[in-house]
């Protein structure tokens, strides 16, 4: 009894050790696969696959044969499977129709040549490689269908449809795969010359695989082609594939090596240097071209994809920039209007000034003269406005300083963190804009300007200051977020 226990423990230990020595690496191979949604392209083609006969591919499924009599369709992978000797294929399919009995079935293939339309579940006979059949119809009346059966062929044998290949198939299992509430899943695994097929019953959304067959000493063609096919006869079913996912399998000794690892260190360095050199050359050429063809560069910029995309920070800065522009516009307008007032006053009281709102005149019309109280009102409001302009100047200066700081931060971040150059440009133009605003103010309310005759705005200074205040807060927030992001990028 004790020795049996010891043997059992030893057996388990050896199994665990073997499993640890032979880990399997698995890689999805998209060039050999298709899956819903977006299974097919708009024109009905499947990337890397040939679809022919009555097969129709859509986004949701590949219908190999419809539930109509005597139809056949195939789809074959145009690329040979060269990635590994071993593979796993996970297939999700639906077979069904109105009848209590359906026909004829679906084939899953791995062959040395591309397949063609033919009599074996829609595909050609005398194939070389593996054919796994979901045979719905009991042609030999043995009451053993629907069944899943495996037949290997070296290109010399013809499948006997009338006997369901009963004398030819290597292995099979009886499974009812028709009209199931969920897609039926199959898992085919070929590893170290052992072929296993697991089948799910399609009764629940997540697969519940059961072993259908396991065959040892199987030698499948190297660099073969995956294919699928289906056919109907006197009876018919829809035969749909929703997912055909191929994975290459590797054991420890065959671990796939990343392309970068395959290159010796010295060579890698050489490539890197060459890349750097070419990049520099390219940048130089680009700068030269820009210099020589500034008009062309503009044209090219229209195709710059960055133009069409804008991240949150860039958007915020753009909004700040736009509102600064608007402020500038308003200031220019008020400048013009005050010039008009000034003109009216200088021309000696020959103008009547209709009051709008109370503070500033809106238009100058010829005819009547200023009354004293109107003159006093205008002078008082102009004094107020002079004060407002001074305040504005101070605020604009503050914004200028803060924007300048953002620019500095971005420039620093750009050196290490690759900050978006369009944002940088925007901040630059914002700075320029502010410089213009500042310059305008210096001209209009600087030491040279007369305080009795100031060029100031009709805009409410409180609203203006509020706008400026809000913008300053946004700018500070942007600087804070940006610096945080840069830190995150760096670490
Ligand atoms: C007819 C023939 C057969 C086919 C069955 C079921 O009997 O076309 O070849 O298998 O229908 O479709
Ligand atoms: Ca059959
Ligand atoms: Ca049968």
Automatic annotation (TrEMBL):
Signal peptide from the UniProt entry: 1-19
Keywords, alphabetical: Coiled coil, Disulfide bond, Lectin, Membrane, Signal, Transmembrane, Transmembrane helix
Membrane topology: Single-pass type I membrane protein
Compartments reported by the entry: Endoplasmic reticulum-Golgi intermediate compartment membrane
Name of this chain's protein: L-type lectin-like domain-containing protein
Keyword Zinc: no
InterPro entries: ConA-like_dom_sf, Intracellular_Lectin-GPT, Lectin_leg
GO molecular-function terms, A-Z: D-mannose binding
Protein origin, superkingdom: Eukaryota
Gene from which this protein is expressed: Cni-ile-1
Transmembrane portions of the chain: 463-481
GO cellular component: COPII-coated ER to Golgi transport vesicle; endoplasmic reticulum membrane; endoplasmic reticulum-Golgi intermediate compartment membrane; Golgi membrane
GO BP terms in the entry: endoplasmic reticulum to Golgi vesicle-mediated transport
Coiled coil ranges: 265-292
Major localisation: endoplasmic reticulum
